[in-house]
């Protein structure tokens, strides 16, 4: 249902997308270069995904995956747009389509080590310079028991 | 006055001025309302509310560090907050005391493994009383304040003892 | 010579300027203030500020009293909840998430428990579902009470805070008798809840329900009818519907903007499908509407508590779940309506006993993002009213 709407809206906009129905809902995988066009198409087409609920990254071990969680109030359903980016890679900023992406993008940029070209204010949000980044990648270790006990 | 009731009317007591001041200080601890995390709800808000009522101990909150005697560090201190914490501590007038409230302020608590978290606020400012718990109940904070009051009252005695032994 | 003539004489190009002889009592030639240039002032509000609800740091650019630009600087409470969750077993992740939204921890726990159940396909007993709804509503009132009380304090009304603390303690004693904790409950677990209502909990709740409507009237008298309070909040911080949707807002701030989306109604979870309740919606989306929506939600939550107590079914409170939870590899998203908005847990599992990735969709972060948009144009004193009306919790913003 929603995966058909997703793929028709995306193909109408001419965005190469791989749409599949997964356990969490309809997921469209788009190349990072076409992300802004894909989000614009989904917001403006009949399916009207008016709200960006959330944006978060996952470190898969080989690359980073950013998931954009969209919600359509007209159709009362959720959809996900997923882009893959290499470590320290670039993903275009989505803030002109959804202003709610402003803060989550800064967070993802800091904690996963990505850049969002086009973001108006990509400063460090959560940590100061004395902390080594990126903290949320799988390869970043947390403190060991010995370090904690010796404090 | 209460002293009359304790010692009889028109009685005279001899004491050192500093000791007298310390007795007064112990009964008028104004804390800096500096809530960082979860502990602030318990230690500063619930405790200031009608059920626990810190006010009856002479403990009241101030918004500015310049007017505060004691700083309750109520929550996790991370590396970004550490600078602000030290700046606030340096602004407080002497004599000043610090209470580390909760597991996070004592040792880093449940977040101690995260590289951004400071392992205990005693790395940044000297701590007088540690109150364990996650979060401590308001009663624990009251007990912590009583310990601090004892510490303040006996401050001169302790200093004199140290001088004698030195 | 008058002072004007003297100052004219001083700038004559030829010859030495005569020494200025000022009349007695004057130290310099008066020139007025027209030549003074004004510049914008950057004010750091926070991280230690009595009215920022925690450790929020907002940079305000001011032209006199007026705000030109605002920017939130976050991270003073960034303590790695998402990272540490990847190193904890599923049963221990709830203790971390309790501390994310620390005023209403039970909602975040519930979202995690539901996401874990989705992955493992656990059927939750009906009684546990009703208890989940019951405790969600108890905590909703406790959280809204704090929001209203501290909001009064921000605006300059000290008294309501003392009154709301009285009712909050009544609710906390119920929570303590059942869950064993006043704030960090860890009560909702994957598969059900920790334990049934204790014998003393129901009389305490019934007593609370009897007195609460009267107390609510008291708050209305103290705050709603207070002219100073009305003047401070009416028409301040207007967020229209389109802005609220564009910024991904949820919860009372979204509903105050005239859009009645509530997860409890639209995507029912726990026992909300069997419960009857209305969703209050505001009109103009100013601070006043946000305040009124919260007051109305408290009244409705008290009704829901009564419905839950009356309709509580019999049965188990915990499904049969293995000691060590190992969900199959996959993804799940579960959303819950917390007092601040839609709390979502996005859970990615790789089949081991620790989650691969836990992402918390923090409603406060989305609601806070709008201050950059709303604050410019207001006076500096209004910034406190706007932040307070959004009812943010820094624990879940910074995570």
Explain what this protein looks like in three dimensions.
The complex is a heterotrimer of chains A (151), B (166) and C (399). Chain A is an alpha+beta fold and 151 residues long. Chain A has a single domain (3-141), classed as 2-Layer Sandwich (Beta Polymerase, domain 2), CATH 3.30.460.80. Chain A is built from 4 helices and 5 strands; from the N terminus they run αββαβββαα. Chain A has helices at 2-12, 35-44, 102-112, 145-150, and strands spanning 18-22, 25-29, 51-59, 64-72, 77-85. The radius of gyration of chain A is 17 Å and the shape is elongated. Chain B has 7 helices and 5 strands; from the N terminus they run H-H-E-H-E-E-H-E-H-E-H-H. Chain B has helices spanning 2-7, 17-26, 38-48, 79-91, 102-107, 138-153, 155-165; strands at 30-32, 60-62, 70-74, 97-101, 129-131. A 5-stranded parallel β-sheet of chain B has the order 2-1-3-4-5. In chain B, helix 2 (17-26) packs antiparallel against helix 6. Chain B is globular and about 60 Å long. The termini of chain B are far apart. By secondary structure, chain C is an alpha+beta fold. Chain C has one domain: Cytochrome-c3 Hydrogenase, chain B (Orthogonal Bundle), CATH 1.10.645.10. A 3-stranded antiparallel β-sheet of chain C has the order 1-2-3. Chain C has a 3-stranded antiparallel β-sheet with strand order 6-7-8. In chain C, strands 4-5 form a two-stranded antiparallel ribbon. The mean pLDDT of chain C is 87.
Q: What's the alpha carbon Rg of chain C, rounded to whole Å?
A: 27 Å
Number of strand segments of chain B: 5
What name does CATH use for the topology of the domain at 37-146 in chain B? Rossmann fold
Total number of helices of chain C? 16
| Contiguous helical run count of chain B | 7
Strand order of the largest sheet of chain B: 2-1-3-4-5
Summarize model confidence as the mean pLDDT of chain C: 87
At the fourth level of CATH, the homologous superfamily of chain C is: Cytochrome-c3 Hydrogenase, chain B
**Given the helix and strand composition of chain B, which structural class is it?**
alpha/beta
Distance between the termini of chain B: 39 Å
* CA radius of gyration of chain B: 17 Å
The CATH top-level class label of the domain at 37-146 in chain B:
Alpha Beta
Could you say which overall geometry of chain C the principal axes of the C-alpha atoms support?
Answer: elongated
Assembly level: heterotrimer
- Level-1 CATH class name of chain C: Mainly Alpha
Beta-strand proportion of chain C = 5-15%
CATH architecture of chain C: Orthogonal Bundle
Q: Give, in spatial order, the strands making up the sheet with the most strands of chain C.
A: 1-2-3
CATH topology of chain C: Cytochrome-c3 Hydrogenase, chain B
Helix content of chain C: 40-55%
